[in-house]
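Section 3.1: Structural characterization of target chains.
Under the original work plan, the team committed to producing a structural model for every single-chain target entering the pipeline before any wet-lab resources were allocated. The record below documents one such target. The sequence was received from the expression subgroup and is listed exactly as submitted; it comprises 184 residues.
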Amino acid sequence: MDKLIEDYKKSMEKTLSSYKKYLLTVKTGRAHGAIFENLVVESYGQQMPINQVATISAPNSSTIVIQPWDESNLKNIEKAILKANLGFTPQNDGKVIKINIPAMTEEDRKKVVKLLKQEGERYKVTLRNNRKKINKSIKDMEKDKIISEDEARKAEKNIQKILDEYVDKLENITKSKEKEINSI
């Protein structure tokens, strides 16, 4: 039973970690290289993450500079940025790509916060699905007489408590990101 709960906590942590990683890619009106973290560039006939073909930096809060290690990749990086449809127009000067991050309007902030909340709900569903799986395992163990009915009820209460804890963490992270978006 302890192993089952430990695995459950690991799956919950993994979901929360995935959500935090997603939040790094959310536009906040401030320049940060994580926006491009999931960008894939064709380089030397292969699809590669952008961080394996270029250095991404943010010299100030409104500019991102992407400097490829091999200038022959400039066009491919530019194509990948445009194809990703992130809402940015890359400026290629032959050596680096500069991207100006426009200030977000109030309407943009509201859209981003709405999307953020929708994504937060999607991750909450994932957390609940994790609970559903473990509760099924507990029911099966009870049915197979591996654990008693009392142990099963106790475990289910413990599982619910863990779920509530992770949902609270997710909501707090979302509120913090929402505050960040609205304060810039």
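The mean pLDDT is 88.
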